[in-house]
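User: Design a sequence. Structure:
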């Protein structure tokens, strides 16, 4: 038998994405909505899916969905494109604006997928690390952009995993002072209730990423979209997989989007719970919680407390949170998604117990 020759060299340093998803009683590690799509909407979905012809290729661009989303955002169909989750569109961004000899500006700590996509496409990465409080080092970013060699940049707002919003004035400054394609990743904008959508009318170099995975309880179905100017959207059309958005997902997403007003109550509940959890964390000794505009909170533990150990302790009690303690810039940090009131309460009680256990006075 012959050995297989090596894969492309840029794969050598890449770790396959691992969400560290371990079944647990309380799953608050992946920023999903703890509540599934409401039953009355699920019934409508079943009806819609029954009408899908499985033997026919789907509408490649999902134009029904593009029209609905365009209308809701005051745009035209040619300013919207759908993807197999936001993740596909992030990959498409690297394919279309990255590549050998091209450069991506990253603002770590942030979503790790951006960096992987740049590496996969042989795109050079320029990191402008965030400040100590995780706010964007705006002057450093604008200074770097001014050199004129950045092909695309991603600004995550709210940022994952730190939870903070980017300032619209800063995003506008990026757009105004460069021709870099700036993606604002608004995967969590339903929880911040804030969007840079108005800037689309004035700047051709802005593109906005959204997803059905978080506020709309659809992480399992895979549906994301971009809002952008027609010239930008046209380039995405060239690199996307023709049928990446399948007919069943299109049917599910149509019904969910038509019913999106029904998700408002659960979004409000998550926002209220976020406030309660943040306040409770603030009263615990040995931990520092970062303010969040999203559906998760980043927590940093004091040096004498080992976050990795806390993560394990929580898991043994049926609570899965996300361990970032060995990630750059996020030493000794865990991220907890905001779940239902009961889930959050159990998390807080268990965390209080473990802190008492390790001798931090509670
Ligand atoms: C979850 C997430 C996405 C998109 O997720 P999909 O499930 O692929 O739609 C994009 N960006 C960030 C920052 C996210 O956290």
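Assistant: Done.
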């Amino acid at each position: 038998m012959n050995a297989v020759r090596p894969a492309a060299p840029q794969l050598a340093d890449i770790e396959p994405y691992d969400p560290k998803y371990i079944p647990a009683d309380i799953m608050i590690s992946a920023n999903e909505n703890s509540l599934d799509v409401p039953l009355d909407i699920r019934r409508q979905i079943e009806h819609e899916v029954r009408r899908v012809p499985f033997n026919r290729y789907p509408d490649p661009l999902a134009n029904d969905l593009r029209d609905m989303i365009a209308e809701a955002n005051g745009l035209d169909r040619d300013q919207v494109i759908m993807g197999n989750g936001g993740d596909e569109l992030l990959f498409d961004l690297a394919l279309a604006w990255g590549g050998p000899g091209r450069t991506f500006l990253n603002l770590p700590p942030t979503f790790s997928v951006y960096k992987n996509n740049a590496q996969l496409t042989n795109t050079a990465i320029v990191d402008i690390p965030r400040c100590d409080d995780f706010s964007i080092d705006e002057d450093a970013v604008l200074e770097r952009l001014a050199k004129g060699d950045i092909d695309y940049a991603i600004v995550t707002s709210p940022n994952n995993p730190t939870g903070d919003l980017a300032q619209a004035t800063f995003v506008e400054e990026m757009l105004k002072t460069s021709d870099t394609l700036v993606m604002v990743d608004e995967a969590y904008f339903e929880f911040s209730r804030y969007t840079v959508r108005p800037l689309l009318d004035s700047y051709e170099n802005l593109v906005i990423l959204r997803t059905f995975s978080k506020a709309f309880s659809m992480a399992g179905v895979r549906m994301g979209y971009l809002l952008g100017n027609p010239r930008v959207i046209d380039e995405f059309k060239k690199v996307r997989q023709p049928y990446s958005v399948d007919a069943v997902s299109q049917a599910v997403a149509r019904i969910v989007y038509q019913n999106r007003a029904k998700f408002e109550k659960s979004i409000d509940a998550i926002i209220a719970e976020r406030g309660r959890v943040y306040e409770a964390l603030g009263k615990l000794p040995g931990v520092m919680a970062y303010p969040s505009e999203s559906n998760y909170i980043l927590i940093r533990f004091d040096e004498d407390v080992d976050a990795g150990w806390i993560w394990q302790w929580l898991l043994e009690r049926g609570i899965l949170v996300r361990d970032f303690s060995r990630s750059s810039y996020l030493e000794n940090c865990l991220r907890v998604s905001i779940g239902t009131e009961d889930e959050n309460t159990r998390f807080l009680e268990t965390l209080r117990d473990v802190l008492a256990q390790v001798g931090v006075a509670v």
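Residues 264-282 form the longest helix (19 residues). The mean pLDDT is 96.
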